[in-house]
């Protein structure tokens, strides 16, 4: 395909692959990037929220021309039952700052922009090119890739795999095991268009201010999962995701679940009159630290979703992707400068550097959480219902005295979950969170 | 009175047609070269059966012989079917050829 040998080949043009390719090309390395989609972003799906910090460390002035939708000034966390939600909202004018912290984005547009920067930095990008396997030398060292193009091989000192959650290349080359239905979530999402003034009045926003909602409760029908509603300039992203094995057992369809979420009395007015222009689905690796595969080997490094770099509790992924991509790129540049080969021993530097960042620290901190949430479905069904009922008892004025109401609430929790159950849940949660 | 006895029983949404959603999407179909194939089977496994409701694009259905069939033109390439049937190996899953398949305008 291409005769010359590259310093690095990057598989995938999502946030992790783009971060890696950009970082290396900026330092003068010869980089080939391969993307199976017609254009970068055409296969990519995310909520989506962009965390400025991770991108600033790669492109400090990204705000000048990146396609950003709204900066987030309000975060709403909803615990829902069938007719209500109990909300924790945090809104602050402090988020109306010169360099906002979080933005909503539309991935197909954002990825195209990021890819433009990557190509400006000197990366050779080939789209519509699916990598089919890794090429190895007689010692088993990865030396390049084969693609589905005619005569489609390419060679490099190191291959960076930013191939996403469905990382077939790495899986089929035995670099990592297949995903497990228990540690991966299936999310479906729709893009609903509305005039921007309508969005702003419904969400109490002005200008480019944005609000985002993360929701849990009976909307997932007893499954481990969450829903989300994000405001873009002229559209609302709405989606819901649950663990694949839960979906398999439940008999529910993902689109049926999303439809029910959209029909919830608290959600429906937000979408009223909107036009849906796209329906997408994607897997999210939610196994966390304990599901993390080997991150490097002789001639290869894995970055982003392919390496399970997602913090499911905080709904963070793209920032981990960009950070792992950047650190992988920096490691390769560092080795190149020292004229050292990309051997497994030398690439261990990648993991050492990651350990010093929030990526590994956060994933380690929450290593028990994915399993905890999967095994303790009361947090998605029983508790949201109890919480909502308690709030209703508390706020409804009906002649019942307050002491009696307190008693009634306490009694409902004891009946709904039993006293040992309540204490056990509190302890388990504390232990997992630690 | 508070209702805490019906915990776990949420109302089911009315049946939803996924075709109406997929019709919004853009695809470049690689005619005659489906990227997903189901291996011949007499009786589908539990996992393969689950795909008839789990596939977010509704690609899987049961035929009158009790076997699961797939029409993957509307596939959104999420990989759920591959992950769920990895153990039984009933689904042969590859990415579409470069450039083919779903094209997300928004993602």
UniProtKB/TrEMBL annotation, chain A:
Instruction: Quote one Gene Ontology molecular function term.
Output: oxidoreductase activity
Q: Where is the FixC-like C-terminal domain?
A: 370-434
Which cofactor is recorded for it? FAD
Entry-linked InterPro entries? ETF-QO/FixC_UQ-bd, FAD/NAD-bd_sf, FixC-like, FixC-like_C
UniProtKB keywords: FAD, Flavoprotein, Oxidoreductase
Coiled-coil region list: none
Entry's Pfam families?
ETF-QO_FixC_C, ETFQO_UQ-bd, FAD_oxidored
UniProt function note = Could be required for the formation of a functional nitrogenase Fe protein. Probably accepts electrons from FixA/FixB and reduces a quinone.
What family name appears in the similarity comment?
A: Belongs to the ETF-QO/FixC family.
* Designated name of the protein: Protein FixC
Which species is this UniProt entry from?
A: Nitrospirillum amazonense
UniProtKB/TrEMBL annotation, chain B:
Source organism, top-level taxon: Bacteria
Tell me the keywords, alphabetical order. Electron transport, Iron, Iron-sulfur, Metal-binding, Transport
Q: Which residues form a coiled coil?
A: none
The record's annotation in InterPro entries points to:
Fd_FixX
From the Swiss-Prot or TrEMBL record, what is one GO molecular function term?
iron ion binding
Protein's UniProt keywords contain Plastid: no
Q: Does the keyword Metal-binding apply?
A: yes
Q: What is the recorded function of this protein according to its Swiss-Prot or TrEMBL entry?
A: Could be a 3Fe-4S cluster-containing protein.
Provide the protein name. Answer: Ferredoxin-like protein
Task: Report the source organism.
Answer: Nitrospirillum amazonense
């Amino acid at each position: 395909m291409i005769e010359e040998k590259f310093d690095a080949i990057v598989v995938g043009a999502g946030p992790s692959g783009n971060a890696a390719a950009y970082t290396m090309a900026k330092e003068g390395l010869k980089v080939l990037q391969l993307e199976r989609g017609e254009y970068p972003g055409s296969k990519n799906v995310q909520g989506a929220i962009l965390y400025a910090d991770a991108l600033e460390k790669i492109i400090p002035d990204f705000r000048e021309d990146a396609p950003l939708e709204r900066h987030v000034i309000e975060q709403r966390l909803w615990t829902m039952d069938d007719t209500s939600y109990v909300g924790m909202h945090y809104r602050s004018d402090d988020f109306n700052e010169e360099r906002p912290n979080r933005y909503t984005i539309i991935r197909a547009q954002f990825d195209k922009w990021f890819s433009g920067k990557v190509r400006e930095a000197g990366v050779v990008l080939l789209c519509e090119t699916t990598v089919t396997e890794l090429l190895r030398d007689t010692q088993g060292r990865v030396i390049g890739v084969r693609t589905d193009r005619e005569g489609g091989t390419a060679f490099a000192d190191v291959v960076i795999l930013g191939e996403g959650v469905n990382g077939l290349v790495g899986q089929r080359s035995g670099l990592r095991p297949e995903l497990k239905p228990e540690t991966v979530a299936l999310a479906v999402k729709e893009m609903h268009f509305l005039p921007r003034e309508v969005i702003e009045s419904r969400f109490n926003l002005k200008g480019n201010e944005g609000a985002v909602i993360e929701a849990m409760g009976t909307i997932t029908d007893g499954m481990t999962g969450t829903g989300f509603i994000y405001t873009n300039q002229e559209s609302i992203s709405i989606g819901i995701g649950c663990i694949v094995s839960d979906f398999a057992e439940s008999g529910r369809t993902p689109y049926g679940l999303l439809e029910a979420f959209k029909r919830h009395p608290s959600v429906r007015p937000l979408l009223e009159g909107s036009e849906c222009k796209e329906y997408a689905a994607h897997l999210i690796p939610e196994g966390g630290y304990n599901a993390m595969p080997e991150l490097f080997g002789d001639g290869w490094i894995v970055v982003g979703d392919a390496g399970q770099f997602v913090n499911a509790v905080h709904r963070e992924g793209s920032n981990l992707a960009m950070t792992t991509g950047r650190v992988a790129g920096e490691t390769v540049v560092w080795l190149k400068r020292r004229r050292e080969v990309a051997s497994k021993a030398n690439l261990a530097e990648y993991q050492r550097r990651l350990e010093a960042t929030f990526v590994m620290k956060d994933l380690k901190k929450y290593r028990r959480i994915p399993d905890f949430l999967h095994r303790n479905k009361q947090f998605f069904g029983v508790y949201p219902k109890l919480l909502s009922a308690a709030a209703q008892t508390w706020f409804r004025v009906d002649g019942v005295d307050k002491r009696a109401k307190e008693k009634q609430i306490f009694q409902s929790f004891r009946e709904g979950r039993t006293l040992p159950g309540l204490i056990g849940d509190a302890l388990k949660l504390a232990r997992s969170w630690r | 009175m508070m209702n805490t006895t019906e915990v776990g029983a949420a109302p089911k949404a009315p049946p939803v047609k996924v075709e109406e959603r997929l019709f919004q999407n853009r695809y470049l179909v690689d005619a005659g070269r489906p990227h997903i194939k189901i291996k011949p089977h007499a009786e589908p496994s539990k996992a393969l059966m689950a795909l008839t409701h789990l596939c977010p694009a509704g690609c899987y259905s049961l035929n009158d012989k009790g076997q699961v069939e797939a029409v993957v033109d509307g596939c959104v390439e999420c990989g759920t079917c591959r992950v769920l049937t990895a153990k039984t190996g009933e689904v042969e899953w590859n990415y579409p050829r470069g450039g083919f398949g779903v094209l997300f305008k928004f993602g």
